[in-house]
Amino acid sequence: MSKVTLAEAPPGVEGAGFFATTLDKAIGLARANSLWPLPFATSCCGIEFMATMGSTYDLARFGAERPSFSPRQADMLLVMGTIAKKMAPVLRQVYTQMAEPRWVIAVGACASSGGIFDTYSVLQGIDEIIPVDVYVPGCPPRPEAILDGVLKLQDIVKNESLNRRNTPEYKALLEKYGIQTDNG
Amino acid sequence: MDKLDNQGIWTYLQEKFGERVGIIGEPHGLLTISTSKDDIIELLSFLKDDEKLQFIYLTDITAVHYPKQQKAFAVVYHVHNLYRNVRLRVKVFLEGETPTTPTATTIWNGANWMERETYDFFGVVFEGHPDLRRILNMDDLDVFPMRKEYPLEDPNRVDKKDFYFGR
Amino acid sequence: MSKSISKITHNNPVFYDNDPQDELITLNIGPTHPATHGVFQNVCQIDGERIVSGVSTIGYIHRAFEKIAEHRPFYQITPLTDRLNYCSSPINNMGWHMTVEKLLNIEIPKRVQYMRVIVMELARIADHIICNGILGVDTGAFSGFLYVMQEREFIYEIFEEICGARLTTNIGRIGGFERDFNEVAFRKIKEFIKRYPPVLEEFEELFVRNRIFIERTSGVAAVTPEQALSYSWSGPILRATGVDYDVRVVDPYCSYEEFDFEVPVGTSGDVYDRFMVRNAEMWQSLRIIGQALEKIEKEPQGIFHADVPEFYLPPKEQVYNNMEALIYHFKIVMGEWETPKSEVYHAVEGANGELGFYLIHDGGRTPYRLHFRRPSFVNYQMFAPMSSGMLISDAIINMSSLNVIAGELDA
Predict the structure, then answer these.
(1) For B138, which of A86, A118, A124 is closest by C-beta distance?
(2) Which residues pair with A80 in a beta bridge?
(3) B18-150: what fold?
(4) Domain spans, chain A
(5) Cα separation of C100 and C81, whole Å?
(6) What is the ipTM of this complex?
(7) Which has more pLDDT, A12 or A105?
(8) Contact between A44 and C83 using a beta-carbon 8 Å cutoff
(9) Domain C1-62+383-405, what architecture?
(10) Which residues contact A88 (CB under 8 A, 6 or more apart)?
(11) What stretches of C231-270 show up as alpha helix (H) in DSSP?
């Protein structure tokens, strides 16, 4: 018996020698299980992310084997730690450099809402400058919580329609943040 | 050499500087003296180079804002004699909207960023500093945030209604 | 105050301008470059692989700790100190408690002091594990990092037993600890000092006589004691240059004078020496923890805080059931106790160097001014000047060996 667990197949029609499902589901399955994370670690939560990537918790089990430090080749932006206003434009630039489809997880209280740092120099949550898909609470969150956030994102990715990134709603969302859209 | 205690340091400095240094006290055993901005560099170099004192190590430079005083800013230097383990605190009181004092980078290289930080937070201008720019805050910030009159929270926030916080 | 988010700043670095044929390239490393392990920006002018001049920009996670501290009572500042050097939060917590205790003239029982020593030395080991492990990764050896990371997880388990948190621990109260170490915590600490030495030995075997590691690090970024002192360096990187300045020895706090340990020093101040000093310090920390455990055995059991009800927050169950405790709780939280008007500077030996707290108190509920003397901030300013003439790859390992923690750097 192999110890490798296979991903659960999406609902579809199965017969002798064939399996039919929708293209959305098949691509969603592939995307969800090979998310390439871009760790944007600024402070304490980054240290917990180090533990998440390390041997004890091992994020690679969920298909995020390759941390991509280049935004061009990443699917999942993990923002970990306080984002100061000085850092905000850098974060936005990293986000715009990512290719579609792209997802964002705000890890920790600071990235989600500014956390305990309600000060003149700290951005009160990264959702002021980029759209966020999953928020992970905690200051810092435990590695299990970060893993849970990634699993939640996988659910979103699995069920996302292929056409979503071309819809006017999505374009309007990005325009709300002042981000240029190039597709469609 | 005899033991270097606070009383000894103070008498020794009095002999050398006379009226130009003043004593503030010894809170928790740490001798605190004050001087003026005209004498600070001479005093610091004397503290560092004198064979008896040997305060060779600059621990810290920072500032304090006392808006109610006429001399509203105090620049505080902590120096340390590593040979005999004696610490000393030197204060310089400054006045004006843009207080100025000469730079200590001529004595210690390490004073560079400490002075930039003090400038960034309090707007104390260190004359002769090689590169006096903001260091921690954004370049386009137009105030000195650690002064007491500026609030902690971002005054431009719109989502925080006082109503919800009972104030 | 500034209206909104800043634009990407183009600070105008002061560059070496003797470049008539425009041969030098400007390279921007950071603020999110993976090699910098944090948010540091260095704009370098390079000639091939060699850095001609560089300028560091910091402040990318400036969170205004000192301003917040002016608006918080003493016991609420402890969580802020956690987030200074988050790799060794307990040292910061203890340093802050000791500063306030010095201000209030609180005498701490011996047993509590030894407990604090244990917590601080565990934190020091955890911090050095990260620094030396990452230095290994940067020189191309990932395995050492993975070996010691497991032990760091074990230290975090001990912290969880003591206070419930892993990283930002918020251990202790002003006057002692919030609760006694439980059985499991003591068992795990004892287990740790048995299981860690073989791992550390194996880790040292991987690096100490490894030719690749020696050639990458030996002689790289060597610093003389005079330079180091002039830049106010402290901590392991100062001791690597040969200066035996350790706050635990020259200015003992928490009964460190009763412990028998050595201060390891280097000779050349290069990256290799810094690595060796940190390793040797981990051995010394293990010795200190062992001695502290022995000393705790001899002290009366069950004491975990000083008898200062005016400043030590009473346990919650007493607050709910006991009138006196409720009054004390209320008065502490509302800041109604007389506190002395004074100023105090207290320094502890943090994992990166002298961590100082300069507290000015005017008798109010909150500090009038609190300044953190942050070792990372002071140590890092030499990085750009010392990088000129260095290869880019050497500058990267130099940066890892300085162990600059962004939270402590930017406050």
Answers:
(1) A86
(2) A41, A107
(3) Beta Polymerase; domain 2 (3.30.460)
(4) 37-176
(5) 13
(6) 0.93
(7) A105
(8) yes
(9) 2-Layer Sandwich (3.30)
(10) A123, A128, A129, C5, C6
(11) 236-239, 247-250
pLDDT at A184: 44
Q: What is the CATH topology of the domain spanning C65-373?
A: Cytochrome-c3 Hydrogenase; chain B (1.10.645)
Q: Write the residue in A85, A86, A119 that is nearest to B153 by C-beta.
A: A119
Q: For tokens 């390992």, name the residue.
A: C397
Residue C241: band (very low, low, confident or very high) from pLDDT cuts 50, 70, 90: very high
- Fold classified for A37-176: Rossmann fold (3.40.50)
Contact C235, C375 (CB under 8 A): yes
What does the alpha-carbon distance between residue C55 and residue C13 come to, in Å, rounded to a whole number?
6
The answer to whether C350 touches C82, Cβ cutoff 8 Å, is no
Q: What is the mean pLDDT of residues B70-92?
A: 93
Instruction: Please indicate whether, in this complex, the C-beta atoms of C67 and A119 are within 8 angstroms of each other.
Output: yes
Roughly what angle, to the nearest 10 degrees, separates helices C183-207 and C271-298?
Answer: 160
pLDDT(B112) > 50:
yes
pLDDT band at C10 (very low <50, low <70, confident <90, very high): very low
Task: State the pLDDT at residue B167.
Answer: 67
Domain ranges of chain B: 18-150
Encode pLDDT of A77-91 as tens digits.
Answer: 999 999 998 889 889
Is the pLDDT at A46 greater than 80? The verdict is: yes
Q: How many whole angstroms separate alpha carbon B73 and alpha carbon B79?
A: 19
A61 touches chain B (CB under 8 A): no
